[in-house]
Design a protein that fits this description.
Helix content is about 35%, strand content about 15%. The protein is an alpha/beta fold. The strands form 3 sheets. It has a 6-stranded parallel β-sheet. It has a 3-stranded antiparallel β-sheet with strand order 7-8-9, with helices on one face. The two termini are about 40 Å apart.
């Protein structure tokens, strides 16, 4: 695949969050080519600032850094000068905090009439839950995701294996909103404020099930509808070596192919017969237990059956398909050495990148960034000495 030109080259983004949906959104936009500037508190003001593990969020690849004391007048002024030449700001404070700091949307709009200002929170900027603290599992709970998942032995909802609310409900929700706002601005629009709620993003992901209930009264609980495992053709099955395969043979011709290759042709005409599902499911279980997982995958996956392996993470990172697609890249950290990481796979065909060297803790681009918005070396020195920037 030919290397793609970064689509967001020339777009500058200030990110005020170090973790969560905003950090995920910043990571994706950086992979698309945007200049992303991570704005963090100075050390003396950074008690609540979380420094994520060195390898997380793409190890900060391609992201510039500056630490600013937003409670200092000179620090706030420096932030607003950066904001004046930015295209996008992302923040994830509790509702009202940026206004109290004097860097909220109305203030930034005064210095930059074209700004796209994106606030990411768990529950949104208003409403009864707006002030609640939360994390991924909370947003998945209120939006119905957990209730539609196969319960544990004790009847409780399972703990998901991915941070769906942070990544898709919040991060990708923010990315889509920001990109749409940039398109609108390019058509002559002015400054825009985006209120991104991770819980509402999950609700959007759940819309098939929610809309089904609102229209018909049918509840998409575990094993109740097609996509929650009602039918044997949409499930996971254990194989002889105790590894598992996923089966998603929804279309009738895929189901017929699967039945034929498993030696279960007698069920081909009963795909949606509720009275036969327990029987079919047991027949599938028995069939898959006759061979190892990779044998079944080799046999079934290329033959239009919608069968794929259920990989553990140590397996997927060496999967030949992902390797050939250039999904992983190399990075190096001064303390931890070389390591692999997931590359910018959401960035429109941009794949394997040059090796990324992780900045050392405390390493900053403050001088370069402040000089670019008009500060002299003497002014930068003065602000550093006062602790307003690092």
């Amino acid at each position: 695949m030919p290397e793609a030109t970064p689509q967001l080259q020339g777009i500058t983004l200030l990110n005020l969050a170090s973790v969560g949906p905003a950090a995920r959104a910043a990571r994706t936009l950086a992979d698309f080519g945007a200049q992303v500037i991570q704005v963090s508190p100075t050390p003396k003001k950074g008690g609540k600032q979380i420094r994520p593990p060195f390898h997380s969020y793409g190890a900060g690849r391609g992201i510039q850094r500056i630490q600013i004391d937003l409670k200092a007048d000179s620090g706030k002024k420096a932030f607003l000068k950066l904001a004046a030449s930015a295209d996008v700001i992302i923040e994830s404070y509790r509702p009202g905090v940026v206004d109290r700091l004097g860097i909220g949307f109305p203030v930034v709009r005064e210095v930059n009439p074209d700004i796209v200002y994106c606030s990411t929170t768990g529950y949104g900027q208003d409403g009864p839950a707006a002030g609640w603290a939360g994390h991924d599992i909370n947003y998945l709970g209120v939006a119905g995701y957990l209730a539609c998942s196969e319960p544990r032995a004790d009847g409780g909802a399972p703990i998901p294996g991915a941070t769906v609310a942070d990544s898709a409900g919040g991060g990708m929700h923010a990315v889509l909103s920001i990109l749409a706002a940039l398109v609108r601005r390019g058509m002559g629009g002015d400054a825009q404020y985006l209120d991104v709620s991770a819980a509402e993003g999950v609700l959007s992901l759940m819309s098939l099930s929610v809309d089904q209930y609102l229209a018909t009264g049918e509840v998409a609980g575990p094993r109740q509808v097609l996509l929650t495992g009602r039918y044997a053709f949409y499930d996971v099955y254990q194989c002889r070596d105790d590894k598992w395969v996923s089966v998603g043979a929804i279309e009738p011709h895929f189901f017929r192919n699967l039945c034929g290759l498993l030696g279960l042709e007698e069920y081909s005409d009963y795909q949606m017969d509720d009275a036969r599902q327990d029987e079919i499911r047991q027949a599938f279980r028995d069939a898959f237990l006759r061979r190892d997982r990779d044998e079944w995958v080799t046999e079934l996956a290329p033959k239009d059956t919608c069968v794929a392996p259920v990989y553990a993470i140590p397996e997927l990172v060496d999967d030949p398909h992902f390797i050939e697609r250039g999904i992983f890249m190399e990075a190096e950290d001064a303390e931890h050495g070389r390591f692999r990481q997931v590359g910018p796979i959401l960035a429109g065909g941009i794949r394997a990148q040059p090796e990324w060297k992780v900045p050392a803790q405390g390493e900053s681009d403050a001088e370069t960034l402040l000089a670019a918005v008009g500060y002299s070396p003497a002014e930068i020195r003065e602000m550093r000495q006062a602790g307003a920037v690092e």
